[in-house]
Specification:
Length: 182
């Protein structure tokens, strides 16, 4: 039977709202206002297995890896900044019957997880080679008076997690994930 001391040793919980997108694609040839991300449904890589039959039993070994699409919910402002940015991004992917170059439309993101009581980074997710695969339809309703959010699914090549000691304070300038092997 557990007692209260067991739970005290767990420490404070990680809060779902203590995060920020610290790196997002910037398109120098297209100027737009800053965008705000309200929600991210992040997935980590999953690995398939392959059975190899040996000595009357199957042994399982690593086969291929896969990262499911990542969902972002963007706040839309009165200038339609998010839709303009996503529309421009899509022109880099496909325009007038021609497919774009992956180096132009695949971009990296960084999502920092923050400690519950300070802005120190306790973990960082690097989303590698991402591009918007689908943009959900938007509901315009003249009777609701509600605001618009844009839901977008991103396909990516990999998600890399880098954890930090919860007592360490790490500034964003100190985080160098470019040397992490993928």
């Amino acid at each position: 039977m557990r007692n209260i001391t067991d739970f005290e040793m767990l420490g404070d919980p990680l809060l779902s709202f203590r995060w920020e997108l610290t790196k997002f694609p910037n398109f120098p040839s297209f100027k737009f206002d800053p965008i705000r991300v309200e929600k991210v449904d992040l997935t980590l890589p999953t690995f398939d297995n392959i059975p190899i039959y040996m000595n009357g039993m199957n042994r399982y070994y690593l086969s291929t890896g896969n990262v499911d699409p990542i969902s972002f919910t963007f706040y839309e402002n009165h200038k339609m900044t998010t839709l303009k940015m996503l529309s421009y991004w899509r022109t880099l992917m496909y325009q007038d019957g021609f497919y774009g170059i992956p180096a132009d439309y695949k971009h990296d993101f960084e999502l920092s997880v923050l400690k519950y009581d300070t802005d120190s980074v306790v973990g960082l997710f690097k989303i590698v080679g991402a591009w918007p695969s689908s943009i959900d339809g938007t509901n315009f309703d003249d009777g609701s008076g509600g605001r618009i959010s844009i839901n977008v699914s991103f396909v990516c090549d990999n998600v890399i997690f880098k954890g930090f000691n919860a007592t360490d304070t790490v500034s964003y300038g100190d985080i160098d994930l470019d040397n992490v092997r993928i």
